[in-house]
Write a structure and sequence with these properties.
445 residues, 12 helices, disordered C terminus, six-stranded mixed beta sheet, homodimer, FAD/NAD(P)-binding domain
C-alpha cells in the first residue's frame, strides 16, 4: 500500500502539537510515523480533575492509535526517543535502533522543574502525567483516610487539621487549590464521622505579587477574590526555598506545615530539546526560526511547549494547547508548500483568548480586550474544553460526569490505588506512637 | 450522637458480603465499623472488562464511604487487619493498635492461588483486584505495541504471532478468553499498520474435561462451542505443571508458547480465615455453623468467599456474589434476633440461578431448571449485572460505555500505565538482539 517514494515524516510526541501535525500531514502524499512513550494522548487541561477525583484517567485520555486510525498513511509507534542524528536524519530509540526521516517534527512538550532540587519531587509531586494525577489523588484522599482512622481509634484527639499546601499560583496551582477546597468543603463532608473535612486548610503559595501572572492585573485580582471565596488561603510574595517532609520553608525563614504538598511552580522543556544540539533558552526550549524549523535544518521542526518563538512584542509564545495546535497545523502547511516547491510562510499565532478555571462556577477569561470573571467565564471554559476534548465518546461521558458532579457535589473517581503511605505524615505518626505506649492509643486499653 | 450503650459490630471487608451486612446492620440500634484495606468497593464480576480495556477502573469501583454515607451509625476505616483476639474481642490493625467489637463479621474474601508456586504470579497475573486488572491490561496492550514496533522497524519479519495463554477454564478464564478474542479480532484491527491483531491466538487451558465445570454439562458444551466460534483455542484435560517466561509446560511434557500468560486457575481464601484460629478447609475457608457463626464464638460470623458452608446436598456453597449478599443480610437478621432475644435462624441460600459471560452476545445461564445460551443469556447477564452494579451513577456510565462499545466494537479504556516491560518478551528480544549486531536490525542500516 505504501509508496516507497513518499517522504517520511517522523513526529515525536502525541500531545496537542504532535496529534494536530499528524492529522494535517496525513492529508499529504507522505508516510507519517508518530512516536510516543505512552500509547495515549493525555488531555492536560483536565488533568487536575483526575488529581482531585472528579474524572477517571480513561475519561481524559484517548489511545493515540484510535485517534489516528482512519489515516492509512499514519503509523503509531510506542517507544522512547533518546537522541538524534541530524546529519544522517535518524531518530534513536531506547533499545530499539533508529527510525529514518525526511522531515522531523519534535513535539515532546515540557515537564515540571524543581529548580535543581529533584529530591523535592517525592515530597511534592507535580501534575504533568496521568501517573502524577493518580499519585496526587492518592495522597489527597489518603490524608483524609488516615486522619479519620487516627481520630476514630483515639490515637490523635489533638490532631492538627489537614493542610494542603500548593506551591505556585499559575493556572495549575489555582485549579488545584480551588478544586481541592470544593472537595473538602462539599464533596466528602458527609463521608466522614470522626473528622470534619470542611476544616481542611488549603494554602496557595505564589512567589510573585499576584496569582495567574500571565493574565491582566484585574483578572488576577478577580481570581484571587474567587479563590478566597472558595476558602483558599492565598499568600502572594511567598517564595518557597525548601520542601521538607511535613512542610515547606519560605524565603523569610518562616515554615508552613503541610499534610500534603503539591508542586505547581516550575516548567522545564523536555530534555529532547537539548538533545537536538540546536540553541536553547535558559529552560531548555529550542529557539526556532519563524517557520518553526531550527537553524541550519529546514527539515527539522520544533513545536508546542518545547519551542521558543517570540510573538510580535518579543515575548515567547505561552505554553498553551492552542499555540501547539496551531503550530502543528502550520508545520503541515509548510511541508505541503515544500512539496509544491513554494516558499514557506512564517507562523503567526492567532490568539483567541485564554481562560483559567478556579472551581465550581469560578473562572476568569480574556477574549481579545474582553475580561470576564465568575460563572460566565466558567461556563465558557467548560464549553471550550468539552469541544476540544479528543474523541466524541469522551466528550459525552465527561459531560455526564460534570453534570452529575455539578448538581450533586459528588466526585466519583475517589479511588486510592497504590500503597498506603504518605510522606511526612508517617514520620509524624511514628514520632507520636513512640512517645506513648501503643496500648494507650486504643479504645481497648 | 453515638450512644455508648450500643453494641459495636466490626465488619472486615467492603465486598458484596461486607457491604450488604453493613447496610442491613445500619438499620439496627448498633454502632457499625467497616474496615477495608482499600477505600473502594470493587465490582468483581466486571473486573475482566477493566483487564480487557472495555471499562475504566472508576466505572466498576465505588468509594465505600460514598455507598454508606447515609447511615450515621456506620463508620468506615481504611486499614489492614492483621489478626484477632477472640477472647478480648479485639481486631488488630497493622501499625495502628486494635478495634474492640461486640460482634465481628469477617468478609475478607479470597485471592488467587498458585498452588504453592507464588513465583508464577509475576509471569502469569491473576484477576482479583483493580491493580491486577490494570496490570493485565498493560501486558495485553503492550504485546500488540511491541509487536507493531518490532515489525515496523524491521527487527522481526519472522515474528511469531502473538499468543495469549489463559490458565483455567472457570468463569474468569472463559470471560478473559472470549473478550480478548473480541479485542484482537474487532476492536483494534484497524489500529495497526504492520501487524494483524486478528492473527492473535488465544488458548484457554483447562485441566478438567470441560470448561465451566460448576455448570450443567450441556451449558459447558455450549460455552465451549461459543468460545470456538469467537476464535478461542479451547484445550481441556490440559493441566499446567509449570509457568516459565514465554510459555507454560503441561502435564504431558508438551510446551505452549505464550506472549502473555494469565492465571485463572486457583482460588485461596484470605489468610485472615486461618488467623481466626477456628477450623478451616483445605483452601483456608472457615467452616461455619448453619447460622454463619464459628464454633464456640456466636459473636463471630464469617461470610462470603471466605466461608465454607454446605448446602442441602453437602456441597460447599459457591464463591458467588449472590451467596455473599444473602449471607451478609442473614447475619444482620440473626443479630437483630439476638437483640430481641429470639433464637437465631440457619442460613438457606436462595439460588436464583447463575450465569457466565463469554463475549459479545455470548453467554450461558442456568435459572432453576432452565438452561439458556447465546444472545438471550448474554442480555440477561447484562441486565442482572447492571442492576447489581453499586451506585446509580456508575450504572448509567457503564451502560453508555457498553452501548457505545457494542455498536462500534470500540474499547475506549486502552491505556498502558506503568513501565514498558513484558516478562518473557524482553528476554526473547534480548536474545534476538545479541544474536545479530544492532545496526542490522534497523531500516537505517
Amino acid at each position: 500500500m505504501e509508496q516507497p517514494a513518499q517522504p517520511r515524516v517522523v513526529i515525536i510526541g502525541g500531545g496537542f502539537g504532535g496529534l494536530n501535525a499528524a492529522t494535517a500531514l496525513a492529508k499529504l502524499p507522505l508516510a507519517v510515523t508518530l512516536i510516543d512513550r505512552k500509547n495515549y494522548h493525555n488531555f492536560q487541561p483536565l488533568l487536575y480533575q483526575v488529581a482531585t477525583a472528579g474524572l477517571s484517567p480513561g475519561e481524559i485520555a484517548a489511545p493515540i492509535r484510535g485517534v489516528l486510525k482512519k489515516h492509512p498513511n499514519v503509523e503509531v509507534l510506542m517507544g522512547e526517543v533518546v537522541g538524534f542524528d541530524l546529519d544522517k536524519r535518524l531518530v534513536w530509540l531506547r533499545d530499539d535502533g533508529s527510525v529514518p526521516y525526511d522531515y522531523l517534527v519534535l513535539a515532546a512538550g515540557a515537564t515540571h522543574s524543581y529548580f535543581g532540587h529533584d529530591e523535592w519531587e517525592k515530597l511534592a509531586p507535580g501534575l504533568k502525567t496521568i501517573e502524577d494525577a493518580i499519585e496526587i489523588r492518592r495522597r489527597v484522599l489518603l490524608a483524609f483516610e488516615l486522619a479519620e482512622r487516627s481520630v476514630a481509634l483515639e490515637h490523635a484527639h489533638d490532631l492538627e487539621p489537614i493542610q494542603f499546601v500548593i506551591v505556585g499560583g499559575g493556572p495549575t496551582g489555582v485549579e488545584l487549590a480551588g478544586t481541592l477546597s470544593e472537595v473538602a468543603r462539599h464533596a466528602i463532608v458527609r463521608d466522614f464521622r470522626s473528622i470534619m473535612p470542611q476544616q481542611t486548610r488549603i494554602i496557595l503559595l505564589e512567589g510573585g505579587p499576584r496569582v495567574l501572572p500571565a493574565y491582566p492585573e484585574d483578572l488576577s485580582r478577580s481570581a484571587e477574590a474567587q479563590l478566597r471565596k472558595l476558602g483558599v488561603d492565598v499568600r502572594t510574595r511567598s517564595v518557597v526555598t525548601s520542601v521538607e517532609p511535613g512542610g515547606v520553608t519560605l524565603a523569610d525563614g518562616s515554615q508552613v506545615r503541610s499534610t500534603v504538598t503539591l508542586w505547581a511552580a516550575g516548567v522545564a522543556a523536555s530534555a529532547l530539546g537539548r538533545a537536538l544540539g540546536s540553541p536553547v533558552d535558559r529552560s531548555g526550549h529550542v529557539l526556532v526560526n519563524p517557520d518553526l524549523s531550527i537553524p541550519g535544518h529546514p527539515e527539522v521542526f520544533v513545536i508546542g511547549d518545547l519551542a521558543n518563538l517570540a510573538d510580535k512584542s518579543g515575548q515567547p509564545l505561552p505554553g498553551l494547547a492552542p499555540v501547539a495546535i496551531q503550530e502543528g497545523r502550520h508545520v503541515a502547511k509548510n511541508v505541503a508548500r515544500d512539496l509544491r516547491r513554494q516558499p514557506r510562510r512564517d507562523f503567526v499565532y492567532l490568539d483567541k483568548g485564554t481562560m483559567a478555571t478556579i472551581g465550581r462556577a469560578a473562572a476568569i477569561a480574556r477574549i481579545g480586550r474582553l475580561h470576564i470573571s465568575g460563572f460566565i467565564a466558567w461556563f465558557l471554559w467548560l464549553f471550550v474544553h468539552l469541544m476540544y476534548l479528543v474523541g466524541f465518546r469522551n466528550r459525552l461521558l465527561v459531560l455526564t460526569e460534570w453534570a452529575w458532579s455539578y448538581f450533586t457535589y459528588q466526585r466519583s473517581a475517589r479511588l486510592i490505588t497504590g500503597s498506603e503511605t504518605l510522606p511526612g505524615w508517617s514520620d509524624a505518626r511514628e514520632a507520636a506512637s513512640t512517645s506513648q505506649p501503643e496500648a494507650a492509643n486504643t479504645k481497648a486499653s
